[in-house]
Amino acid sequence: MAPRFRSLPPRFGSALPVTRQDRDRDRDQREWRKWYKTARWQRLRMSVLVRDLFTCQWPGCGKIEADTSKLVADHRRPHRGDEAMFWDPDNLQCLCKPCHDSRKQRAENRGHR
Hints:
two-stranded antiparallel sheet; mainly alpha
């Protein structure tokens, strides 16, 4: 007689059910991420970099960078999917990537603007 295999206990916890609200929030979040891929965003980004003279606006930095791939058009106030805030040039500033990826993120995580 062949041995019987017992059911093994699950190795991972059971998945939490996904609510309609979770799906809608995730879909909305994905929608505004698409705005970064548009020609409109590229034009706005470049106008902000030119306006700020390719200079990091973070207090105490002031780095001038000719390579635009090392610069970020950063939202001063997080837009959180608000279309008007996303496209508002007065809500954008030029930051170098190191300032954006470290100092700005730490400030936002602490709740500062």
